[in-house]
Amino acid sequence: MSYEYILTEVPAPGVGLVRLNRPQALNALNNALMKELHDALSAFEADDGIACMIVTGSERAFAAGADIKEMLDTPYIDMFMRPTVTANFDFSRYKKPLIAAVSGFALGGGCELAMACDMIVASETAVFGQPEINLGILPGGGGTQRLTRAVGKALAMEIMLTDRRLTAQEAAQYGLVNKVVAVESYMDEAIKIGQKIASLSRVAVRLTKDAIQRAFETTLQEGLQAEQHLFYMAFATEDKQEGMTAFAEKRKPTWKHK
Ligand code: DAK
C-alpha cells in the first residue's frame, strides 16, 4: 500500500517499521497521518511475518504534536462526535510490542504517541513535552494519565502546567524512556530490540505484554490473578515445551509460535 504521510519498511526480519514523514510540519499529526499510521500498524499486526513494530519520525522531530492548523477550525461538535482523532491514541488494540524510536521534538500528541508505545528508545537530542497549555487546551491523547504514571505527580504537573520540557537524559532519569543513545544509533538500537523480540516465542511475547498491561488497568490482586491465568496458559503451548526442552538439552529453541 502507498501512503502520503508515512513510510513503511521491514528493516530486519520480523520487525515492521513505520516512519512518520511530514517533514515540512515536523511530523505534526493530522487526521490523515494518524489514519495511515493505524492502517500500517494494523497491516503489520495482521502479518504473521512481523513480531514487533517500531514507530519513528526524523532526526529533527519524532512529532511536534497534533496538527494545530487542522485543529484551529475544528469545532467542539466535530471533536466530540467524530472519533477520527479521539480513538487514535488508543494503542491497546495492538498485541505485538511497539517501540517508539524518538529523536528531536516529541511534543504534545508526539509525546503522547511515544508514550502509547510499549518502549521508548531516545536519541540524545530528544525533547519531551506537553505544551498544550500554551494553546489554551490540555493534553487529550493520554498525556495527563500516561506521563503522570511515568514520572509522578509533581513533575507531571510542572511539565503540563508550565511547559517544562525534558531532555532525553532527564526522560531516562525519570523512567519515561528505556535508553538514550547517540543520534547516529538510536534507530539501530530500536531495531536491535525489535530483533531480540522477533527471536523469541511470539506466543510468550504476547502473553507477557498482556500481563504487563494489566498492571495499568487493575488492582494488584486482579493483576496477580490475571498473571496466574496467563502463566497457566503458557503451559498449554508447544513453545513452553520446546523452550524448556531446549534448555535441558543445552541447545537453542526452535519456536513454533503456538
Ligand atoms: N502543528 C502544525 N504545524 C506545526 C506544528 C504543529 N503541532 N509544529 C510545527 N509545525 C510547523 C510550523 O508551523 C512550521 O510550518 P511553516 O510555518 O514552515 O509552514 C514548521 O512546522 C516548522 O516549525 P517551526 O518553524 O516552528 O520550527 P522551530 O524549530 O522554530 O520550532 C517547535 C519547533 C516544535 C518548537 C515549534 O514548531 C512548536 O512549538 N510547535 C508546536 C508544538 C506544540 O504546541 N505541540 C502541541 C500541539 S497540541 C487529541 C489527542 C491529542 C491532541 C489533540 C487531540 N484527541 C484524542 C482528540 C494533541 C494536541 C497537541 O499535540
Overall strand count: 10
Give the distinct bound molecules.
Answer: 4-(N,N-dimethylamino)cinnamoyl-COA
Q: Can you list the strand order of the major beta sheet?
A: 1-2-3-5-7-10
Number of helices: 12
| Overall average residue pLDDT | 95
Characterization of the model:
By secondary structure, this protein is α/β, with parallel strands linked by helices. It contains twelve helices and ten strands. Strands 1-2-3-5-7-10 form a six-stranded mixed β-sheet, sandwiched between helices. The two termini are 29 Å apart. The model has no long low-confidence stretch (mean pLDDT 95). Residues 25-26, 28, 64-69, 79, 85-86, 89, 105, 107-109, 112, 131-132, 135, 140-141 line the site of 4-(N,N-dimethylamino)cinnamoyl-COA.
Entry summary:
By secondary structure, the protein is α/β, with parallel strands linked by helices. The chain is 46% helix and 16% strand.
Q: What would the keywords be for this entry?
A:
46% helix, alpha/beta, six-stranded mixed β-sheet, four-stranded mixed β-sheet, 258 residues, binds 4-(N,N-dimethylamino)cinnamoyl-COA
